[in-house]
Amino acid sequence: MLRFLLRAAGLVALLPVGLGAATASQRSFGINYDKNYFLKDGKPFRYVSGSIHYSRVPRYYWKDRLLKMKMAGLDAIQTYVPWNYHEFKPGVYNFSGDRDIEYFLQLANEIGLLVILRAGPYICAEWDMGGLPAWLLEKESIVLRSSDLDYLSAVERWMGVLLPKMKPYLYQNGGPVIMVQVENEYGSYFACDYDYLRYLQKLFHHHLGDEVVLFTTDGASKHYLRCGALQGLYATVDFAPGGNVTAAFLTQRGSEPRGPLVNSEFYTGWLDHWGHPHSVVPTNTIAKTLDEILARGANVNMYMFIGGTNFAYWNGANMPYAAQPTSYDYDAPLSEAGDLTDKYFALREVIGRYNHLPEGPIPPTTPKYAYGRVTMEKLGTVAELLDDLSPSGPIRSTYPLTFVQLQQYFGFVLYRTTFPKNCSEPTPLFSPLNGVHDRAYVSVDGVPQGVLERGKSNMINITGKAGANLDVLVENMGRVNYGRYNNDFKGLVSNLSLGQVTLIDWEIYPLDIDGVVGHGLNSKGGESKTSGGNPSRYAAPAFYTGRFSIPSGIPDLPQDTYIKFPGWTKGQIWINGFNLGRYWPVRGPQVTLFVPSNILVSSSPNNITVLELEQSPCGIQKCAIEFVDKPDINATLQYESNTRKLFTKDLWLDPLII
Ligand SMILES: *[C@@H]1O[C@H](CO)[C@@H](O)[C@H](O)[C@H]1NC(C)=O
Ligand SMILES: *[C@@H]1O[C@H](CO)[C@@H](O)[C@H](O)[C@H]1NC(C)=O
Ligand SMILES: *[C@@H]1O[C@H](CO)[C@@H](O)[C@H](O)[C@H]1NC(C)=O
Ligand SMILES: *[C@@H]1O[C@H](CO)[C@@H](O)[C@H](O)[C@H]1NC(C)=O
Ligand SMILES: *[C@@H]1O[C@H](CO)[C@@H](O)[C@H](O)[C@H]1NC(C)=O
Ligand SMILES: *[C@@H]1O[C@H](CO)[C@@H](O)[C@H](O)[C@H]1NC(C)=O
Ligand SMILES: *[C@@H]1O[C@H](CO)[C@@H](O)[C@H](O)[C@H]1NC(C)=O
Prior knowledge:
One of its GO terms (cellular component) is lysosome. The chain has about 650 residues and is of the alpha+beta class.
């Protein structure tokens, strides 16, 4: 009760100064608590918004996607700011090219879209570590998203860079940003640290001014709002289509007895994980619930309006460990490639009942081109190319070091040691503490032996003589983005044993694959060795290359395309040095990768580099990848039926806090 009174007092104090006194030339944005709506320039305002993450769409296509959103009748867009996308190393920032958030905001402004900015520091978003930089884990015991002093000092430095950049884009300063979200679904996190939220509130006001409307977003249940809401931060909720809209908004009323109703994440689709069926949410269900939300005058943000792509290594993961694929299509109204879908037109029709739809043509779906098969040729195995891939050479350590200890945050690290004794009988190589994060490709004297995988397989049998070379190439498949498992260390995070013996005396090779691929990787042309035990199943992780030219005489090329991987198993692919992401067609559901046209050139051949981790078709047949004009992110594969339903929002709940 005391909390409630304090809260009500806080809300009164939050009312922006000068409400109602705004003239046409005075831009203001605030909340009218008596009438339960937002006030824009002193007039009642309700928004219909859609999510787009600039980090998941190439800059080249920002304008196209934003225009399509505008033409759907949206008033606003909502975007996250992924901290780790901008501050790659402590104090080293990047806001250029695809990371130029200011340009993105300017475009939205020009197109006439308002912006709801979700500034973090934590964003979830199916993004690596929920947007938190992995280097925060250099303090091993750090309590993320809490008043931990080391965490706060990193947050303070970052927000001291980001928020001053954002200030001129606030609505009252002439820009498009009407509201700024603090943290994200904090009520779903175990820490429940009100001091942390208060600290962020102060920090945001310090940089953005007192007028700015700050808000929080939490799942629509009392349980989430308990730790997610804070006096002075306007509490909003998120919920899916098909449920009871009245009941969902009543939970918001539990925290905000007065003020506008807001669903900050109304799900137009859902996320995917490797090895699980592609998520599809029927258009009818979404259209019906959207209509109910709008009919009651509530504000809504559709998450996602366009999902886009987890390029490079940016996908996140959930627990029990399951990584999200490269595509973040999300079954959203605009496809991963920005295509107009039936869902787009159906939702536009619903929005049109409440908003004036802009006149003029909707930008058409971009054409896709099937460039066809490209022959690939082997450059060499990771072991053969090691001098190039690891220019700094190995770090020697008795016990394994994690990626963070090596200050390599993404990609792959090679851990090498030798057999301490003769193992002529099959001997278990295993990770007693399930410490392979996340997937390890094991070779003995260059001969592939098998794969260890986090949460799935922590033991394989191997043989070898004393002194034989043991290579364990470890892949970081994406850090957990949700819940208490955010402190997700990568690499060999605990010891490996061979039989009864703990393996020691490692040579650990950090691999600068992206740097090397960018400059061109040269062939070592070694003969590849096939697997000892199971010859057809594994080959040593290796690089392949191929080139293709854009056909001349056809207008409007290069166009977007999709890559298919016939006969390939799992790996990473680059075109002209741009890291397109992970492929894993044997696990699915995604079997093609989206290639935006802006990374292709017509003036010279385009260079393809593939790192295949398990088995390529090369050697068995003439090997190739293939460019096709249709995506396939919905392959029917063998799924693990017991985990099918694991990732519905409510089941994400951390068992320890229920
Ligand atoms: C910054 O990011 C852009 C866009 O991804 C990239 O092209 C550029 O190389 C990066 N700059 C640095 C210094 O890393
Ligand atoms: C929806 O929830 C409200 C409030 O809890 C309740 O009164 C109503 O009966 C529910 N409607 C349905 C169809 O269950
Ligand atoms: C391992 O076995 C070889 C014979 O295959 C033998 O010569 C050698 O001494 C053995 N080494 C150890 C350390 O037992
Ligand atoms: C490893 O070898 C042992 C003994 O030969 C056998 O019992 C076990 O099933 C094998 N495990 C695997 C994963 O192959
Ligand atoms: C490996 O084992 C040693 C000896 O038991 C222990 O001191 C060390 O902390 C372990 N290392 C890791 C990364 O678990
Ligand atoms: C492709 O690789 C060649 C050889 O390394 C290089 O000269 C050329 O510039 C690259 N092309 C592109 C488009 O990056
Ligand atoms: C995916 O496959 C399911 C089952 O075959 C189908 O119902 C759904 O429409 C497909 N979705 C897409 C986006 O192709």
